[in-house]
Amino acid sequence: MKKIIRNTAIAALAIFGGAALTSFTTDITEVSFVESVQQGPKIVFEEKEFNFGSIKQGDKVEHTFNFKNEGDAPLKINHAKGSCGCTVPEWPQEPILPGQSGEIHVVFNSAGKSGRQTKSVTLQTNVGETPVVLYIKGEVIVPSSITNQN
Prior knowledge:
Layout: H1 2-37, E1 43-45, E2 49-56, E3 60-69, E4 77-82, E5 87-90, E6 101-109, E7 115-125, E8 132-141, H2 144-149
Parallel strand pairs: 2-8
Antiparallel strand pairs: 1-3, 3-6, 4-7, 5-6, 7-8
């Protein structure tokens, strides 16, 4: 009888202990996978869209988009391009080290524009192949003196 109880206890321990070990091993594997995905530079913006409200035609609007490299490798912005000649970005040329911050400064010139405007700045970085897109938008009001001349 003692032998049957001992063998049953050993079998139960093997079954439940093996299941716990399998679960533990799976958890470690999943954590390792998540950590490997998050390696490298990581660009995180405070905001990706700025609404400048209403401005008069011909006004220039400037805005600075702040970001931080929350990754574990230097972040490089290879290129930044506005959606048109009226939207001009400036970006850091030097790499942004892990934990450091940077800025993308954008100037929108509303000369010749009217109505709702949505302009973009596309950033090519070393974070991955997918570009980061920032938006600046608002409404350009044509002064009545210009409207009456047409």
